[in-house]
Amino acid sequence: MLDRAVGLCGLDIGEDQEFNLIFAGDRAMARINRDFVGHEGTTDVITFNYLEGDELPGADETAVELVICPDVACREGASRRDSSYGRELALYVVHGILHCSGYDDLEPEARSKMRRAERRVMKALGAEFDFDEVFPS
């Protein structure tokens, strides 16, 4: 699913570059959020995009890291009628990849554009994958 999501999001990452998914509980995620983003509390996904900047990652180097919080996915998946644990985790992956592809969600217009892209990618992925099988609870 990850390779397909990368393609659907238009992320230009080399086949020989690393894409890391890191799963962190609420406490670890809150610490990462504070230390790297400057925000207090836990969050769903934090994106580290090493494809930006002057020194691009080479072969066998990490290009992207997504730190994802399964605890948030569990709560959000249970609280939304149209979601699940697996669907939330898939959405966090897509959201992080879109950030790496140049999407942003800080301003209302950009956020709307990003949400449309999320819906488009999630619909395409949902036609090919069962999110609850990819990410069983």
Q: How would you describe this protein?
A:
- With 137 residues, this protein is α+β, with helices and mostly antiparallel strands.
- The chain has a single domain, classed as Metalloproteases ("zincins"), catalytic domain (Collagenase (Catalytic Domain)), CATH 3.40.390.
- It contains six helices and three strands.
- Strands 1-3-2 form a three-stranded mixed sheet, with helices on both faces.
- The longest helix has 21 residues.
- The chain is globular, with a radius of gyration of 15 Å.
- The mean pLDDT is 96.
The CATH topology is Collagenase (Catalytic Domain)
Terminal-residue CA separation? 17 Å
Return Rg in Å.
15 Å
CATH homologous superfamily designation = Metalloproteases ("zincins"), catalytic domain
Q: Order of SSEs, N→C?
A: HEHEEHHHH
Strand residue content: 5-15%
Taking pLDDT < 50 over at least 5 consecutive residues as the criterion, the unreliable ranges are: none
> Quick check: average pLDDT?
96
CATH architecture: 3-Layer(aba) Sandwich
Tertiary shape: globular
Overall strand count: 3
What number of structural domains do the residues give?
1
Classify the helix fraction into a percent range. 40-55%
